[in-house]
Amino acid sequence: MWQGFVDFVYQYVPWFDGGLAVVLIILIKGVALILPLIIMMAYMTYAERKVIGYMQLRIGPNRVGPIGLLQPFADVFKLMFKEIIFPTKANVYLFVLAPILAFVPAIAIWAVIPLGQDFYITNLDISLLYVLAIGSVGIYGIILAGWASNSKYPLLGALRSASLLVSYEIVVGFVAVTVVMAASSVNLNEIVSSQSGGIWNWYWIPLFPMMIVFWISALAETNRAPFDVVEGESEIMGGTHVEYSGMCFALFFMAEYINMIMMAALAVLMFFGGWHSPFEGVPYLQEFFAFVPDIMWLLGKMSFFLFLYLWIRATFPRYRYDQIMRLCWKVFLPLTIAWIMVVALMTQLHLGPWF
Amino acid sequence: MINKIKKIFKDFGLSEIRAGMKITGKQLTNDKITVQFPEERTPISPRFRGLLALRRYPNGEERCIACKLCEAVCPANAITIESEMRDDGTRRATKYDIDLFKCIFCGFCEESCPVDAIVGTHIFDYAFETREGSIIDKEGLLEVGDKHEKAISKARQADSKYR
């Protein structure tokens, strides 16, 4: 389909030279990805309020539209028309730059996330490294927000987020190392391809502890409960978001939710076979589910993880700050390093059906 | 020693995390207890003391005889009454004002009233648009009473055997 589109552009829009056409195509691809992503993010906020409401025996938003389905749009329009207030002594340039710095990397990561067989924007050979690298750039947005606000609570939040994210980045990196060793590739497409063939070929079985560690670290990386010390409403009243309002705040909000969706996608790609059907190789079920497009499997698995985010948030109280650090440095890091050894041995000795 | 090992297994098995998530997972499908206020209301006791109202006799004559017992008993001095003799020789109130900012909804006026004229209704969700709106005069109170007479008499009926 893309090729047909490219041919069309070359044939009927002659004033486009090659370079401009490529830019145009990339632009269209990007918009085609970002728009559904932002709608998904908007409905993630709706789902969050609804699911947490249900778990607290409430019913959540139900006034705007049928069963509250238009609530995200009401929120978006409210935020768009709100005034952006700059604190008196804030550095305005950094203050505006911070939400952009948080938002852009969150979107940029999606360039390499494969959503299906041959369904991606770029097939980067080091896509997993790219994800980790760009993912850590997003921290700058939060740190800068805390610094530029020139206010105490945002600064505290920024300091917390800096140390929190830096610590858990290491754990996520080591978990990624185990996956890379298992798949012997850093390309997300190949990591997924190497998990083909049914639910028992996915990496969640041989890397089960790493899957748990990755998911808990993902919660910390995205500043979600129970690791939301960065916001910590009851402690530092919103952390880095305190001084932000209107669209500036909305950008932080969107960055957080898009990062959540990205982490869910990454968990699925790394441990749950990406776009592969769980019934591959099962004689009868494989044919029965053959009509389901591969992206639906990916989205289905992702939605489970997104639901898990909300479930965990509805269940657990916030961690104390030193407990978070203890969990990272004294539990997860030794565990991941030990499991790297295990995976190294398993891959070298060609154990099981996986390696 | 054995307890330590047990604890390690318990911690790494995430047993408490699973127990917690089981509880919230169960609540997800339970019946919700939200009362959606304007459409649904919680049941109210017949003795509920809401917005005050003046009642009439079934023949349309107002009950209040301006005895000023309510004015005297009101702990917040919310009631102001002025009276004069009417042409037929009965005493009636010419002014019966209640300042709802002062009123504490204690119900003493209702208890003291010898003719059951001033009563507390079940209305609790009302609002004023001006500051002066807090003072309800006699006409306003009678209007409230006329409008909700059915509910008022029903509540009195339900409570009568305990009085």
Give an account of the 3D structure.
The complex is a heterodimer of chains A (355) and B (163). Chain A is mostly helical and 355 residues long. Chain A folds into 2 domains: 1-81, no CATH class; 82-349, no CATH class. Chain A has helices at residues 2-12, 18-55, 71-81, 92-108, 127-148, 152-183, 188-193, 208-221, 233-236, 246-271, 283-288, 294-315, 321-349. In chain A, helix 8 (208-221) runs antiparallel to helix 13 (321-349). The two termini of chain A are 36 Å apart. With 163 residues, chain B is an alpha+beta fold. Helix content of chain B is 35%, strand content 15%. The model of chain B has no long low-confidence stretch (mean pLDDT 87). Chain A binds chain B through residues 51, 54-59, 62, 212, 311-312, 314-316, and chain B through 14, 17, 20-21, 23-25, 27-28, 30-34, 36.
Quick rundown:
The complex is a heterodimer of chains A (355) and B (163). By secondary structure, chain A is mainly α. Chain A contains 13 helices and no strands.
Keywords:
heterodimer, A: 355 residues, mainly alpha, 2 domains, 13 helices, B: 163 residues, alpha+beta, three-stranded antiparallel β-sheet, two-stranded antiparallel ribbon, 5 strands
Shape of chain A: globular
| Span of the ends, CA to CA of chain A | 36 Å
Largest sheet features of chain B = 3 strands, antiparallel
Poorly predicted regions of chain A are none
Low-confidence stretches of chain B: none
Radius of gyration of chain A: 22 Å
Strand order of the largest sheet of chain B: 2-3-5
